[in-house]
Amino acid sequence: MRLYYGKKIGQSGAELMLAVFFSFFMHAAVVAAALLLTMAVAPKVHVPPFYQVKLVGPPAGEAAAPPVAPPAAPAGEKTTPKTRKSVPRSAKAAPKKGALPELTRKQTKPSPPERAEAETAPTEQATAPSTTAPGKAGAPVEGVAVSSSSEDFKFPYYMAIISVQINRYWNPPPGAKGMKAKVQFTVNRSGMISGPPNLLESSGNFYFDQAAVRTIQQANPFPPMPDEFYKQTATFSVDLMPKD
Questions:
Q1: Residue 219, exposed/middle/buried by CB under 10 A (0-12, 13-18, 19+)?
Q2: Where would I find the beta strands (DSSP E) of the chain?
Q3: pLDDT in tens, 41-98
Q4: What are the beta bridge partners of residue 183?
Q5: Closest CA to 196 of 216, 211, 171, 181
Q6: Do 138 and 159 form a contact (C-beta atoms < 8 A)?
Q7: Which of 154, 226, 224, 230 has the alpha carbon at shortest distance from 192?
Q8: Does an H or E element contain 29, and which?
Q9: Rounded to two decimals, what is the model's pTM?
Q10: Least CB-packed of 22, 48, 130, 206 within 10 Å?
Q11: CA-based diameter of the chain, in Å?
């Protein structure tokens, strides 16, 4: 291929040197760009500085601190060492040769709570006479009066327990002065109420009646029936009145 002036490309020495230098410059630029790109993309690892520490003991001339002595007692007070009192043990006599071993049981002393329950049990039975007329009310509680509708139930102390438990949940609505509602319910031997409570006598106030029935439901369950009562259920009626 010839140019218009009749020379071939690359035949001149100056042009060849210029082409070589241009090619070298381009290659060097590409290599430099690749190195810069690699350094920019590669993550830098940060190495934290570290220090070497050498432990040194105390100086040779310095003595250790003396131990602190306990404070001395005042001159007027005398300290007496505490000594344990030795309780002499009763020595058991050695069994005679050929004697039969003792077969009697040792009587264990009841603990204080058991002794207290054993002492209070006879008093409770003594305070609950069995010759009470049926239907008699239990101990009077403020705003609550419980009576038994069962003819065979003759345990006023149990009705007193029911009165106290009902009184714990009895909260009449405000402004219910002079009102009274009677609710009937049945209790089985375990103390659970069988069936919903029945409103026998209304107070004339809807909210007062609802509070009376709800109180019986909240007081459920009651303590178990006395063992002396042979029937499976007992029916009670309670008069609920405002508290003073």
A1: buried
A2: 144-148, 181-188, 198-201, 233-240
A3: 766 676 788 778 888 777 766 655 666 666 666 665 555 656 566 555 655 555 555 5
A4: 199, 238
A5: 216
A6: yes
A7: 224
A8: helix 13-41
A9: 0.43
A10: 48
A11: 154
CA gap 214, 50 in Å, rounded:
77
Q: In 10 A of CB 122, how many CB atoms? A: 9
Structure tokens at 202: 């209304």
The C-alpha torsion from 121 through 124 and 126 to 128, rounded to 10°, is: -140
pLDDT in tens, 112-152: 545 445 444 444 443 333 333 334 455 557 778 888 877 77
DSSP assignment of 166-197: HHHH--PPTT-TT--EEEEEEEETTS-B-S--
Cα–Cα distance list, 47 to 50, 70, 161, 224 (Å): 9, 54, 82, 79
Token readout for 54 is 């050498």
